[in-house]
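Page 47, continued from p. 46.
Same chain as before, 313 aa.
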Amino acid sequence: MSNVLSGINLQLIAQDSLTTLLSEFPLISKFSTNFGGDIAVKGESVTTRIASQVTATDIGANGYTPSGVVSTARTVTLTQHKGFVMGFNDGEVAKGGYDVLRRTFMRPAAWAVSKAVLDSIFALCTPSNFPNAAYNGSIAAFDADAVAGISQYLTDLNVPQGNRVLITRPAMYTNLAKDNAIQAQYASGTNAPLTENLLPRIHGFEVNQYSGLPNSTTTIYGTSTPDPQFSGLDANLMGIAANPESIIIAARLPAVPQGWYGNVATATDEKSGLSIQVREWYDGVLGQQLMSMSILYGVQIGSTNTLARILAS
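Result:
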């Protein structure tokens, strides 16, 4: 018989964990998602589709003659089963109970899972996968005019102008925030650039900053070393300009263990379909109550012309 945390509702923890995870997920939601409540195991595949561009016809001259439409299948293999495991000793559980779990477990678990998914997304942003580079200059020159140039670059590639997103490192974001043309937008009704360091839409882009955006090297105490996980990325990758069809993310619910002595609870977001699984069990040797939160997911290239790399030094 499994041990149960006194006064703890595992389903409630699962739901609160999902809520916390979703609050860490805003960047992930900028891409195409295929979430579902179906149970899957690592290595299974999910097939989704992206629509190809179409051309308007002259209905006045030709009538309502249907045109062919083409969709491209994209198979996403669920290769990643990522999560976070936390252990609590008997004293912590006895003294703190649910408050200790909530304070200690949920936020770092959600952050770890969301970072794992983002790492998988950005690892795809290599020159071989997405050959277009919309900006290659200095950080100091990255201003509103540079964003206008990126916008034109994508428009020339026939990338739809809706739902465009710009994700950059903080240094690039900060340089945009210091641009007088952007700070002066308080005159049009928003002072967010000055008061909250939140940038408005710039030349059709929703602008986001992400400190964990990787490149091909990792710098620790001033020393740069190659990072195998991101070996295909540019060494000076400082951001991406994309739309939802650039990258596809699929996620499914991990299979529930059979004949296991622990407890399992799941929670699913009704809007997105994203599901997480929370497991709880007791290790008598360690004298710890263990708990995990995990998702099973995969990422895949979408439409290669809709994402452009931003390079700077």
